[in-house]
Each structure stands twice: as structure tokens, then as C-alpha cells.
Amino acid sequence: NFYYITILRDPVSRYLSEWRHVQRGATWKASLHVCDGRSPTTEELPSCYTGDDWSGCSLKEFMDCPYNLANNRQVRMLSDLSLVGCYNLSVMPEEQRNKVLLDSAKENLKRMAFFGLTEFQRKTQYLFEKTFNMNFIAPFTQYNSTRASSVEIDEQTQKHIETLNFLDMELYDYAKDLFLQRYQYMRQKEHQEARRKRQEQRKILKAKQAHNKEQSDDNSTTDYIGNVERWR
């Protein structure tokens, strides 16, 4: 049996992190992007660069490539691409394609056994442990200093990145709301279980106290009757 899980990240931070990763020479050449049994053609998925890699690319160059798979990556990787003709953009209008992809990503995310958010490491750990009934040997650490956080961008660039990743932005809002709902539900369930256990323990304690009192009363009566017999 397989349990599908994923961790989502704030789209702007994730995008900047991928840019820095590509800038250092990383590529996705090993990714086949297979959909419906075949890989996309070069016409369906053109490359953003020539040569072996895209190392040294500026953020502007990274944003300007219309074929950049960094755009809305989280929605694309969570959705069923076969619903929109895989990488063939001529199958349906762009607006319809976007809606189908987003709806598919939301549904697949909701049906996963578990998903977490990088901005909530402790809550992610808590939900994982409760979902799979297991405990990590060390607490998750919330790192606020990352390669993406070290990139300083102005408001215009921020808005541009959000626009390029508008599907991921909407998916992340949905995921964040669902994640916090699940967290609150699990916490309430835990509190209810703890309350039930306390009530059970109180019942057991009261029963023991009543039993001990009854035994004490019986012993007192027995001692009194024994003394009466002896006094005679």
C-alpha cells in the first residue's frame, strides 16, 4: 500500500528558491515529464536556454521565459495533466485549462493521506504523527533563513512573481485553510480523548474508593460483632 504525501511551500519563496537552484547550474534533464504514456515534444515544451544548463541566469531572464516550468509548478505537479491534453496547449482555451488544472490539484491534495506546509513545521510534524500514529525522535525546526529569504526583491518584482504563479497562489491559500482546519480538528479530537480518559480515570477512582469504603464498613461491622460475642 502506498500513501501519497506532499509538502507545499509559499509560492514566491519556492519560485525564488528554484531560480537560485537553477542559477547554480541545476537542471531537470532527468525529468521525463511523461503524460499519457509519452514525453512532450520540443514544440510542446521548448527549453528556456541553450547549452548544458542555465547557470548564471538573472531573475529577470528566469521570469521572462514563457515556457519556464517553475511557473505554477505546485499546481502542475499535483494535477492530472491528462485532463488538459498533457503539455499540448492547443487542446483547450487557456482559461479553461487553468481552471481544470487548479480544480484537479485541489482535489488530489485533499485526497492525499497527508500534506504539510513548510511555514508550519511544528504543526506539520504534529499532523504527520497523529495521521500515521508515529513519533519523530526530534522536533521539526522552523528555518526562517533560507536561500530564498536572502533574495531581496522590490514590490513590483514580488507582484510579477505572484502573477506568474497565480495558480500556485490560489492553491496555497486553499491548502493553508484546509491544513489549519485539519490541525484544529486533530487538536480538538486530542482534547476530547484526553477529557474522556480523565473521566474514565475519575470513574475508576470513585469505584475504588466506594469499594474500599464498603470493605471498611464490613470490617467495622465484623469487628463489632466479634467483640459482642467476646464480651458475652
From TrEMBL:
Assigned EC number: 2.8.2.-
Chain positions covered by the region annotation Disordered: 190-232
Domain of life: Eukaryota
InterPro entries: Heparan_SO4-6-sulfoTrfase, P-loop_NTPase, Sulfotransferase
Keywords tagged on the record: Glycoprotein, Membrane, Signal-anchor, Transferase, Transmembrane, Transmembrane helix
Basic residues biased stretches: 194-210
A GO cellular component entry from the record: membrane
Pfam families from the UniProt entry: Sulfotransfer_2
Subcellular location: Membrane
Molecular function per GO: heparan sulfate 6-sulfotransferase activity
Membrane topology: Single-pass type II membrane protein
The reaction(s) this protein catalyses: alpha-D-glucosaminyl-[heparan sulfate](n) + 3'-phosphoadenylyl sulfate = 6-sulfo-alpha-D-glucosaminyl-[heparan sulfate](n) + adenosine 3',5'-bisphosphate + H(+)
PANTHER family per record: HEPARAN SULFATE 6-O-SULFOTRANSFERASE 3, HEPARAN-SULFATE 6-O-SULFOTRANSFERASE 2
Chain's role: 6-O-sulfation enzyme which catalyzes the transfer of sulfate from 3'-phosphoadenosine 5'-phosphosulfate (PAPS) to position 6 of the N-sulfoglucosamine residue (GlcNS) of heparan sulfate.
Family named by the database record: Belongs to the sulfotransferase 6 family.
Name the record gives this protein: Heparan-sulfate 6-O-sulfotransferase
